[in-house]
Amino acid sequence: MTDFGDFADFADVVRPPAAGGGAGGTGGAALGFFAPWVVYALVLALHLILPARKVSGYVVDEATGEPLRYRLNGLLVLWVTLGLWAAACAKGLVPWDYFWSQRWASLAGACTFGLVFTLAIVLPAPSTGKSLPADLYLGRLANPQWGDGRVDAKMWLYLVGAVMLELNILSFAAHHVLTHPGDASLGVALYVGLFSFFLCEYLFFERVHLYTYDFVAERTGFKLGWGCLTFYPFFYCVGLWSAADATYLHTPAPLLVVSALVFFSGWALSRGANLQKFLFKTRPDAKLLGLIAPEAVTDGTRSLLCSGFWRLSRHINYLGEILMATGITLSLGRLLDPVAWLYPLYYVALLFPRQADDDRRCAAKYGALWQEYCHKVPYKIIPGLY
Ligand code: NDP
To answer: Rounded to whole angstroms, what are the CA distances from 245 to 18, 155, 171, 225?
Structure first.
């Protein structure tokens, strides 16, 4: 195991007081079941009361013809929640590894919440004309907002998913540190660092997300609702579900370096492409980072970007996302653990069909212009290969 002396001190800090915690037993499981509900309610309350940037989005409000407005304060909500969590743990009110010890109960609670949310958001809304199961799965409402636009359902869903995932990761890692005093894995530390970076930078660039497929093409049902309330916070950290309790965890130093390199290469591709498209939609003539000039194919009214990141492939951002997940998984050093690989494999299963869906959508929307664009940018995801 990688010797990481400072972790021994950290283990002393995170060890729960002997008499405190109360995480075990039937009563503990009942509390654990509702713990995600408490987190989701707290995130909603913080989102409502903390200061927020008010911005226009990309999706147009059908009633007014104007872009929908959003309040964004995700990063602040994450930090305040983590601060409250750390304060509660430091006072001994909750063990640092609470969401590890209650992982099955809280997964069940989050799953139930996701199902209740799905029924509550879909059933009262007018049918789309599809079957009820299709409506339940894909949703009926495109971009629901509550409280006179103060809360956007999709942005709240992504925010609760991110906050709950971060709490799970920290709790799972705390369990690892507590059970390996003085001998915790540096790979786990890197995993936490990379994942936390991934979540914080997503929330930092929250506004860019308003310009993505989820907002323009998806409705709000089980896929998005249950996905953000249950799947995102509990499945994305599947690597730690399998690794946090392992007796021997060793990530050789060269693999730590490789995993960080793979992660940040993916990040550069994904964030670079998303920022470039955002800039192109909001300020069509501006250069990305003052360097990459926008070039586009155009039919006179509509334009498609085909320079910089968007020259490499039509969805280079998806390749970036898969590389980030691969880097995160590599950091744990469990190359032969199939469970750890489920996370990047899930991205492959999600993003390859999504690329095909988006391609169909864009072919229908842009017609001949899309053909011209595909001719100019022939690769779908992996430059030179696919
Ligand atoms: P894109 O950001 O690529 O958005 C696709 C849309 O962008 C198209 O429907 C089209 O919309 C527009 N578009 C496509 N090509 C061009 C072009 N050349 N020039 C200008 N506009 C273009 O995909 P997603 O929204 O699916 O993904 C956004 C990000 O989110 C990605 O980085 C992805 O990897 C990430 N993601 C992350 C997930 C996670 O769980 N972490 C899950 C899914 C996605 P229009 O014509 O309406 O403008």
So the answer is: 21, 33, 12, 30
Q: How far is CA 114 from the centre of its chain?
A: 16
Nearest to 153 by CA among 165, 143, 164, 139: 143
Q: Best mutation site among 212, 369, 381 for ligand 1, i.e. most ligand atoms within 8 A of its Cβ? A: 212
- Give 27 Cα–ligand 1 centroid separation in angstroms: 44
Cα 73 from Cα 275, distance rounded (Å): 19
pTM for the whole structure: 0.86
Strand positions, DSSP E, the chain: 53-60, 67-72, 145-146, 151-152, 296-298, 303-305
Q: Which residue's C-alpha comes closest to atom 34 of ligand 1?
A: 318
Neighbours of 8 (CB within 10 A): 15
Domain residue extents for the chain? 1-248, 251-386
Render pLDDT for 71-90 as a digit per residue (tens, 0 to 9): 999 999 999 999 999 999 99
Distance 251 CA to ligand 1 centre (A): 34
* Closest CA to ligand 1's atom 37: 321
Please, are residues 84 and 118 in contact by the beta-carbon 8 Å criterion?
no
Q: What is the pLDDT of residues 272-299, one digit of tens each?
A: 999 999 888 888 887 877 787 788 888 8
Bridge partner residues of 70 (DSSP): 55
